[in-house]
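Sharing in case it's useful to others searching the archive later.

Someone asked me privately for the predicted structure of (raccoon dog) hypothetical protein, so I'm posting the question and my answer publicly. Question first, with the sequence:
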Amino acid sequence: MEKLLGSHLGLEDFIFAHVKGIQKEVEVYKSEDSLGLTITDNGTGYAFIKRIKDGSLIDSIKTICVGDHIESINGENIVGWRHYDIAKKLKELKKDESFTLKLIEPKKAFEIGPRSKPGKSSTEKIGTERGTLRLRSKGPATVEEMPSEIKTKAIEKIDNLLELYMGIQDTDLATTMFEAGKDKVNPDEFAVALDETLGDFAFPDEFVFDVWGAISDAKRE
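And my answer, the predicted structure tokens:
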């Protein structure tokens, strides 16, 4: 909190709080392998829809919105699951069949801007660093540095590969895969590290090879 109240955050940094609002149940017909959504979780058991791809299957269902908390899939409560497990669950749902999502829409909030100091312009930046604020259920809040442009591009490539092979995008999962391979020297080492970290996904060999290619390209830049 010292960093939060000090000068480590700039005007372009945001804090999001999810306050439970409208509860809704949506039936989705899985006509395509790719759902076109990105999910994340807050580390304390609550998963959210982070992004919806334009023109995707989920995008066509206007009752599903960015920020919605996913409470259950086909009646199975998923509170406490990590986003990796939810991605796997959604991937395993059969094509050309319907499934039901129970969602909780967050209450709409307002934006709070920083106060300007006497004699200072309200457009002045507070601090010079950019980062992501992580609030944890245990331990202190931390501000993590923004990823480099090279890392960001690699994660984006891996995220696109996830959509191609799994039918779902998940930036956090893509980041975990990048971290597992960034210090490896060959695809065999990467495959072992990936199996140790995310073995439950049973990624196909061609997918692992393509991900290694994205990581290798990033390391050469």
